[in-house]
C-alpha cells in the first residue's frame, strides 16, 4: 500500500527522485528490526512477538502519509522498516513452528499468502487513487484493519510445543546461542543471492523489455506481471513438491529452472520469448527462499527466531542490493547482459542446494487442540 502511494507522497513532500531514492534506503531499518526480533522471539515466543510486530507494522504504515518533508518522511520510513522487519522474522519463526507440528512442508503456502496480499494491496490502492482519497485516509484505514487483524489472530497463534526449549518468562530466560553456526550463515548467503534475483525482477524486468526490446509500455509491464504471477502460483504448489521430492531437489531444480528462464529472457530478441523467460524465472525462484527459511528454523528449535532473522536479514539486503547493483553495471555493459549476475547466483544456489537437507530427527507433534 505504501508503494502504490509513493508518487503522490513524493509530490506532496516536494522531494526529488534522487532524495526519494536515498530515503528508500531507510527501509533497511527492516534489517535492524529483524536482527533485534530474532532473539526476542526465541526468548518470549512467536505467539507473543507476532502480534506486537503486526501492530507496529500496521500502525507505522500511516506515517508516510503524514510526512510533510524529507526529514519526516525519512523518519516514517525508518519506523515502518523496523516494524516490517519485526513482523517478517516473528511470523516466519511461527511458520516454522506450525511446519514442525504438521510434519510436512507448509512454509511456501505462507509466502504465497504474502504474495497474494501484495496483489490485493495494489488493486485496493489503485482503486482508492481513482477515488482521489488522500494517502492519510487510505493508509489510516489500512492501519486500523491491520491492528484489528493482529488482535483477532493473536489468540489463535500456537504456544511453544518443544519441551526441550520451553519458554518460561517467569523463570530463567532462554537465550539463543551467542554465536550463529556457519551453516546458518551459508543459508543466509544463499538467501541474499536468491532475493537479489527477486529484486532484479521487481525493478528491471519491465525496463528490460522497454529499453532492450523496445516494447510498448503496456507490454513491458507484463514482464513483472508474468514474473509475479508464476511466483505466486509456484509458491502455492511448492509445498507439495517439497513433500514429494524433498527440499534439496526443489531448491536445486528451482534455481536451475530460474537460471534457464532468465538466460532466455536476457538473450532473446523476441518479446514473447522474453516474457516467457521472466515467467519461468518467477516459477523457478518461487520455492527457493521458503526452503532456506524452513531449513534455518528447523536447525535448532530453541534458536529458530535468531536463525530465521539471520537468513531473512541478509536476504532482505540482497533484495535491496539487486536493483542497485544492476544500475551501475548497465553503464558498463548492455542491460540484458547484466542479468547474468543473477543467473550466476541461481547457478551457485543450485550447486549448493544440499545445504537445506533436513536433519535426521522426528519433530514433536502439536497438541490436538492446537492443530
How would a textbook summarize the main sheet? none
Give me the CATH superfamily of the largest domain.
Answer: MFS general substrate transporter like domains
Q: Determine the CATH topology of the largest domain.
A: Growth Hormone, Chain: A
Output mean pLDDT. 85
Strand portion: under 5%
Give the termini distance in whole angstroms.
32 Å
- DSSP summary: helix tally: 16
**Overall number of domains:** 2
Shape: globular
Number of strands: 0
Order of helices and strands: HHHHHHHHHHHHHHHH
Class by SSE composition:
mainly alpha
The CATH first-level class of the largest domain comes to: Mainly Alpha
CATH architecture classification name of the largest domain: Up-down Bundle
Q: What radius of gyration results from the CA coordinates?
A: 21 Å
Low-confidence stretches: 162-177, 361-371
Organism: Streptomyces mooreae
Protein name: MFS transporter
Membrane topology: Multi-pass membrane protein
Domain Major facilitator superfamily (MFS) profile: 1-361
Topology of this structure?
Layout: H1 6-13, H2 17-24, H3 29-44, H4 46-60, H5 63-66, H6 70-102, H7 107-130, H8 135-153, H9 182-211, H10 217-245, H11 247-267, H12 271-285, H13 288-299, H14 304-332, H15 335-338, H16 340-351
Amino acid at each position: 500500500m505504501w508503494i502504490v502511494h509513493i508518487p503522490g507522497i513524493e509530490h506532496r513532500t516536494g522531494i526529488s527522485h534522487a532524495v526519494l531514492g536515498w530515503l528508500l534506503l531507510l527501509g533497511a531499518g527492516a534489517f535492524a528490526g529483524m536482527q533485534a526480533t530474532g532473539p526476542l522471539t526465541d526468548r518470549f515466543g512467536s505467539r507473543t512477538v507476532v502480534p506486537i510486530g503486526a501492530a507496529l507494522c500496521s500502525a507505522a504504515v500511516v506515517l508516510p502519509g503524514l510526512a510533510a518533508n524529507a526529514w519526516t518522511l525519512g523518519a516514517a520510513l525508518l519506523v515502518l522498516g523496523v516494524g516490517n522487519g519485526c513482523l517478517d522474522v516473528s511470523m516466519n519463526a511461527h511458520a516454522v513452528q506450525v511446519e514442525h507440528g504438521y510434519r510436512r512442508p507448509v512454509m511456501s503456502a505462507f509466502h504465497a499468502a504474502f504474495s497474494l496480499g501484495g496483489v490485493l494491496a495494489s488493486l485496493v490502492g489503485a482503486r482508492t487513487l481513482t477515488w482521489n482519497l488522500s494517502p492519510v485516509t487510505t493508509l489510516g484505514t489500512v492501519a486500523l484493519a491491520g491492528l484489528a487483524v493482529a488482535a483477532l489472530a493473536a489468540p489463535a497463534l500456537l504456544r511453544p510445543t518443544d519441551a526441550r526449549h520451553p519458554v518460561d518468562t517467569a523463570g530463567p530466560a532462554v537465550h539463543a546461542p551467542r554465536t550463529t553456526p556457519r551453516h546458518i550463515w551459508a543459508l543466509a548467503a544463499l538467501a541474499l543471492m536468491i532475493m537479489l534475483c527477486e529484486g532484479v525482477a521487481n525493478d528491471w524486468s519491465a525496463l528490460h523489455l522497454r529499453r532492450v526490446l523496445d516494447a510498448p509500455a503496456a507490454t513491458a509491464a507484463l514482464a513483472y506481471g508474468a514474473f509475479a504471477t508464476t511466483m505466486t502460483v509456484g509458491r502455492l504448489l511448492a509445498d507439495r513438491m517439497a513433500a514429494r521430492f524433498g527440499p534439496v531437489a526443489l531448491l536445486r531444480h528451482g534455481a536451475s529452472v530460474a537460471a534457464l528462464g532468465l538466460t532466455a529472457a536476457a538473450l532473446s530478441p523476441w518479446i514473447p520469448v522474453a516474457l516467457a523467460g521472466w515467467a519461468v524465472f518467477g516459477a523457478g525462484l518461487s520455492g527457493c527462499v521458503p526452503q532456506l527459511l524452513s531449513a534455518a528454523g528447523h536447525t535448532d528449535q530453541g534458536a529458530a527466531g535468531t536463525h530465521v532473522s539471520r537468513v531473512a536479514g541478509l536476504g532482505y539486503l540482497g533484495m535491496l542490493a539487486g536493483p542497485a547493483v544492476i544500475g551501475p553495471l548497465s553503464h558498463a555493459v548492455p542491460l540484458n547482459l547484466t542479468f547474468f549476475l543473477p543467473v550466476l547466483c541461481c547457478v551457485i544456489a543450485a550447486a549448493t542446494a544440499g545445504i537445506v537437507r533436513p536433519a535426521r530427527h522426528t519433530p514433536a507433534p502439536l497438541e490436538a487442540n492446537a492443530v
